[in-house]
Every structure is written in C-alpha cells, then in structure tokens.
Amino acid sequence: MNALEQAQHKMREAGVAQGAIDVFTDFHGQLEGGATGLVREADVDPLAGIARADDVTADPAAQREAAAVTAIIKLNGGLGTSMGMDKAKSLLPVRDGLTFLDVIAGQVKHVREQLDVDLPVLFMHSFRTQDDSLAALAPHALQVEGLPLDFLQNREPKLRADDLTPVEWPADPTLEWCPPGHGDLYTALLASGVLDALIDAGYRYASVSNSDNLGAAPDPAMMAWFAGTGAPYAAEVCRRTPADVKGGHLVVRRDDGRLVLRETAQTADEDVEAATDLHRHPYFHTNNLWFDLRQVRETLRERDGVLGLPLIRNTKNVDPADPSSPEVIQIESAMGAAVEVFDGATAIEVDRSRFLPVKTTNDLLLLRSDVYGVGPDFRVRAQVDPRPLIDLDPRFFKTIDGFDARFPHTPSLVDATSLSVEGDWSFGRDVVVSGQVRLADDGTAQHVPAGTRLG
Fold first, then answer.
1. Which of 141, 143, 301, 429 has a C-alpha 20 to 30 A away from that of 73?
2. Tally of CB atoms within 10 A around 404
3. Active-site residues: which are they?
4. What homologous superfamily is domain 3-354 in, according to CATH?
C-alpha cells in the first residue's frame, strides 16, 4: 500500500466515518502535490466596509422568529493541555464555582425563557472530552426532544514528515492520532446525521463558537440580523489591538472578490509584517460563525461531502513532550475558512465583549476576577475598559495546578492597569491590585499577605 492507502486503512480500522476519510484523502493529495496552504499578501486586499453589530436593531417579534429556527453549536473538543490539563478546559470553574459549561447552560436557558423558544444547543466533543462533559451537563437538562446534545469530532493519523505515511508510536499509540482542526465541524455535522436532524426538526440557522469563549452568548438580535441578511454564512470579526497581531484574519481575494480566512500558519514569512499590520488589516477573526444549515447541506452534497477548505500544514513531533521523537505533519483546517466556499458570505464587526477566550492562565485570572461581572442572563461583561494586562511567570503559573495553588483567592483587579508576576509568588485573601504592579523574582517562594493593597 502507498502512503495514502495506509492512512485510509488505519482510519477504517479505527471506525472513522467515510466522509472524514474522503476529506482527509483530499488534503493528503494536496500535501503530496506540495501544497502549502499559504495566502499571499500580493493576492489579497484588506477587509473593509462591513456591517457593525452596534448598528443592528431588531424588534422583539423578529428576534423571537429568528431564535425559533436557530441552533447553538459549541466546539468542546479541546483539552486544556496548554494549561497542563488532561480533560476538557470547559470543566474549569470560572465564576463562583460555575464552570464554562454551567455558564453556557445559563445563557441558553435565559434566551429560552425570555423568548419562549426551544433554542437547541449541541456540543461537538472529541473522544477525550465527551464523557466528562456530558456528565457535567446532565443536571442542566439542556437536550431538546428529538435532537442529540452532542456529536463527535473526527480524528486522523499523524503523518511522517519524510514520506507521509501514518506514524507509528508504540510507546503511546494514542499519540499516533490528531484532531483534524475545527474545520471538521461540517464533516462531523453531516456524517453524524446531526445536520439532517436539525433541518428535519425545522431549524434553519446555526450560531457556532468555542466553549472557552463565554463572550459568544446566544444573542437574539444577532440571530435576527443574520436571518435578515439572507447570507449563507457570516463571520464575526473584532477590531485588532497590538495584542491581536497573531491569529486569523479575513482578507478579500483579488481574483474573485471572495472573503478568505488567513491563519498565522498560512502566512508566508515575507508577508508577516503586512499581515500583522493592524492598520492595514484592522480586524481579527473571532471564530464565532453563523451559517444557513440548508445551504451548508446543499453545498456538501454538491461536493460529495468535501467542502474543499484550504489546507493548514502543521509540523510537530509525534510526542509533543519529546523533541527527539519523529517529526510529523498534522493536516488541519479551520472552520472559518468556509467563508470562501459560499457565494454571498459576509462579515460583521462585533464588540470585544463577544471575544473572551481563555487560552492561558493569564486569561483565566482576568475572567475569575472582578474585572468581569456575570448578570442574571449569565452574560459575562467587562466592568472596566481597557482591561488590565496580566503577565504571570510561566515557570510557576502555566499549569492550572500551579496557578490554583498560588491563587487560592482571586485578587481584585478592577482598578489595575497591569499585573506582572515574576517568580514564585502566592496570594492571600482580599488582595487588591491598583495601577501598574510588578512583583519581582528574588529566587525564593514569596507570599502576598491577606488584605494587601498592591500599587
């Protein structure tokens, strides 16, 4: 068997859906053909002239009408590995003992009660996050009759960088596999039968976001806006700041005028300066999406289940913790890249409040602090603008265990401009941070006593 056939065989033996194998086959062919997935600056123009959510208005009837045919989809397949976790990040407590999943459940229930609609919420899990997350969600009784509460993301083999064959790693066979990126959303929706189930139940639109972004609450006004556009697809974008120069942003392809998502991994070295220029490219992609379920299904059927998303080629080691382990290629795609697939796809500028992802313990400290408040609608709102900058020493605060041990009590940050912690510091109860604060490393474990005011 050649390299592709070996990979296909491995996926079939593992029970991977045929639709996912077909998508993988398309990407493997691109790899063999030398595709890089790069989006060149010379081939694109900046995004401009888009709608603004602040200008969106919709009467209660239009909001309820749209909410009655909208489904909420949350991507919940990621482990919090960057924070030393081996389970879903969404199981972390964020506010008053509430986890990400608890807050999401509260947001969904609020809209249901407010508008008297079913508003189904579905979680796309990975095989590593499914059981624990469903157990945590069970008390909320979120499932809508006739629809599942979740569906599974697919998986694919990591490929040896030298010959594109599936890597073998007997020391830990689970490391031979990787997720195909969140671009797998469309394949998983179709292959699982969830796309058909939603349409058959009378739902027309989907609002999609990451479970670690509590800012992306179900918003009936946005639902009415999207329904009113008639667009097949829409992406939420935010104004960039110097902290947002990395990550995906939308551009306009010159040869056909289509919106295109350019991720960091798709940016050529010589284009980095232009791509990270927040004046030239003023918006970043929030990974909050909207799409018409019927048009997505029709397009998938026309293309035999393969949307043809751009390839993202990620080169890593088979064991991320062992730099001497074989180099592999992980084939990935971004769900936001589907913006270029659909005629009439659009974008809307949203307030920063709809983008509150937690990627590091720096983000988690802010979210747990009094910088944010959670209302009766379970929406998470900043109490100050701009929010303080947090920089915690990764030697001691990178993992959730190290972080929680040193922050058994979250300090007040609402009056802070910045907090920089260098070294091994722990914090007592009722610590208040004001203005710019930097704690220096003296080489020993140090403690901020209870009731201390810093700054």
1. 301
2. 14
3. 359
4. Spore Coat Polysaccharide Biosynthesis Protein SpsA; Chain A (3.90.550.10)
